Amino acid sequence: MLHPHLPSDERLPAYLRLRDALAARIAAGEWGPDAVLPSENALARDHHLSVGTVRKAVQHLVDEGLLERRQGSGTYLRKPAFDATLFRFFQMQTPGEDGQSIPKSQLIARVRVTPPAPVAAILGTADTIRIDRLRSLSGRPILAEEIYVPASRFPGLETIAAHDLGPLLYPVYYDRFGIFVARAIDDVSFATADAGTAALLGITEGDPVAEIERTAFTIDGTAIEWRIARGNARNFRYRSRIG
Amino acid sequence: MLHPHLPSDERLPAYLRLRDALAARIAAGEWGPDAVLPSENALARDHHLSVGTVRKAVQHLVDEGLLERRQGSGTYLRKPAFDATLFRFFQMQTPGEDGQSIPKSQLIARVRVTPPAPVAAILGTADTIRIDRLRSLSGRPILAEEIYVPASRFPGLETIAAHDLGPLLYPVYYDRFGIFVARAIDDVSFATADAGTAALLGITEGDPVAEIERTAFTIDGTAIEWRIARGNARNFRYRSRIG
DNA sequence: TAGTGGTCTAGACCACGCG
DNA sequence: GCGTGGTCTAGACCACTAT
User: Which residues of A touch B240 (CB under 8 A)?
Assistant: First the structure.
């Protein structure tokens, strides 16, 4: 539901109420990955709506990136490799590399921590799991990541076998915890490396680094992850599409 | 039209053909800014379509950012302050400023030039107009811009009275040349200031600068502008929404 | 009050996929 | 061949804007 504290079915149009109802069932995990949803005819029958109205509700969820239609086959959950967007943007200027490949990920630490106050404010809790990773391409470290998620929404994440955490984290959120990252905001800025970051990235303390701070949100607008990624500013490139 | 070299009306669905027809009339300047388009009923009658089909065509153009619906009033051209996005992102960390205001613009030079080869390749021509501007907020320079557009598409741009060029360029493209910027790609990276940039920005040669390279596109995918903006890296912040 | 866009219906036929 | 989503119709009523 988009407004968990509101009844959602005030006097909204039928297609919005159906969209919310479907989003809630999706969020509840009623259909696993690659499951086919009820057909539009079935939804129309069950909700006493015309097919046109059902199509409008489904189209909303498609536009929001939750669902995927396959003509002749059915409507499915979409499981995007969302994490890859960070690296579709973060194109390291390696000659001969196109920057589209996903970097390897090396797990450095996972701990239950009280995060910095601003992060606690964003996530709405001081009980978080922190994940530190080093990501590298062609054997060279390019990005040091520091990730915070609310412990209550990710029970056991800090003890999942490391090999179950692939280079992409958002599919893990989805598959193991039913949490779908729908949106994110990135803030790119410039800083200098502290000793720890410098050691990880193989540069010198005080060298310029680029910082990407990302807040990720679920479909209902809850902040579900905050992370900061640091890379050598000298071969940094962040790409963004507008409009 | 989306595919100017194709007849566009092959055997496409009716709503797509109507969308293309409307886009062509918009591009031809049939309705000026703030003009009201024919009502959905009128379009349905004229094109021998049902209102539902017309609505789908119009909705496409709304989604693409060309049109804007106002219930009870009509459908209008949208004239977005698109240029402002650069500065919605480029939030200088000035205490007490929210970073949302649009910087003043000081025109430095306008010349007909052969651009650097990569820019010529992107724009598809070596005959361009280059515009240099310095943008400042609260009297302090924050961004030096270097802008290239194809001369053939902007006849007379280099001689337009300077006071007709406001802080926002994209509305000028639209109002004077009928060119609508629909999309852009930004590439953010870091470099060091050369003497000219340093002088403009009031920093020292060799200081770190952030560089935003932007390629802007029309609705049919033609690159219509390339620009590079440079600012002091130390109080730089670029914000991007994903998903 | 007249006209606009917003929602919704109850059908129809088509294009596609899959067994 | 059957069921799916994709397109389209010809209406209806509602909510809103402008006069």
Answer: 89, 185-188, 238, 240
Whether residues A242 and B208 touch (CB distance < 8 A) is answered with no
| pLDDT at residue B58, rounded to an integer | 92
pLDDT digits (tens, 9 = 90+) for A157-211: 988 888 777 777 887 887 788 787 877 888 899 999 999 999 999 999 999 999 9
- Name the residue closest to C16, CA to C1': A72
**Which residue's C-alpha is at the least distance from the C1' of C7?**
A13
| Neighboring chain A residues of B85 at a CB cutoff of 8 Å | 242-243
Residues B65, B49 contacting (CB under 8 angstroms): no
Query: How many residue pairs bridge chain A and chain B with CB atoms within 8 Å of each other?
Result: 86
CA distance B222 to A7: 46
Report the distance separating Cα B167 and Cα B142, nearest Å: 14
Answer for B10: CB within 7 Å of strand C: no
Domains in chain A, number: 2
Give me the mean pLDDT over the B10-26 stretch: 82
DSSP state of B102: P
CA A179, CA A83: separation in Å to the nearest integer?
13
Contact B233 A208 (CB under 8 A): yes
Axis crossing angle, helix B14-27 with helix B40-47, rounded to the nearest 10: 110
| Protein-proximal nucleotides of chain D (any atom < 7 Å from a CB) | 3-12, 15-18
- Domain enclosing residue A61, as ranges: 14-77
Tell me if B155 is assigned to some domain: yes
pLDDT score of A243 more than 50: yes
Amino acid at B34: D
Entry pTM: 0.72
A52 touches strand D (CB under 7 A): yes
Tens digit of pLDDT for each residue in B114-127?
999 999 999 999 99
* pLDDT over 50 (residue A128): yes
Residue B91 has pLDDT above 60, yes or no: no
In a domain? residue A1: no
Cα maximum dimension of chain B: 66
Nearest-Cα distance to chain A for B208, in Å, is 8
Q: Are residues B123 and B102 in the same domain?
A: yes
AA letter at A7: P
Q: Write the DSSP assignment of B48-72 as a string of letters.
A: T--HHHHHHHHHHHHHTTSEEEETT
Shared domain for A36 and A129, answered yes or no, is no
- State the CATH number of the domain containing residue B193: 3.40.1410.10
